[in-house]
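ok so dumb question maybe but i'm new to this and my supervisor (M.) told me to 'just get the structure for Cupin type-2 domain-containing protein' and walked off. so i did the thing. is this what she meant?? sequence i used:
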Amino acid sequence: MSDTTTLKTFGLDELELLRGTQPGSGMDVRVNFPFSPSFPASTGLELEGGHNIVYFELDPGQQLGTHTDSPEEIIVCLEGSRVDVWVGDETGSIEGGELAVIPPLAPHGFHNRGEHTARFLGFFSDRVTISEFEEPVEPFGEAVLKT
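this is what came out, is it supposed to look like this??
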């Protein structure tokens, strides 16, 4: 019997990031769903099982606008300080080395108030994620995105 196990690796700095914006809202994020074959800037590596991962960056003063995601999401702040986070009516902050849990379908977003780029990994509890934003996200031209 042959072993078909393959080690799948890549560096986060090697990811091709796609810029997502909402003109007039202050949303300006660089993003990649590295294991999603449906995402244009993907690594082309697919995960087995029920997982979906997002990597995103926010420059100082930029935000990832309010949106909902269909599954629960665990956010890991890899780098950054003074990043405001809102989930529903609750607000707080996150910085490098900290985690946050976002319940399914909870409106949430992030605003980098620090002086350096903030970098995040998000782990979704389902293989398919449907994200709904308040306004269309460019370059997609849609408010509902599926990965």
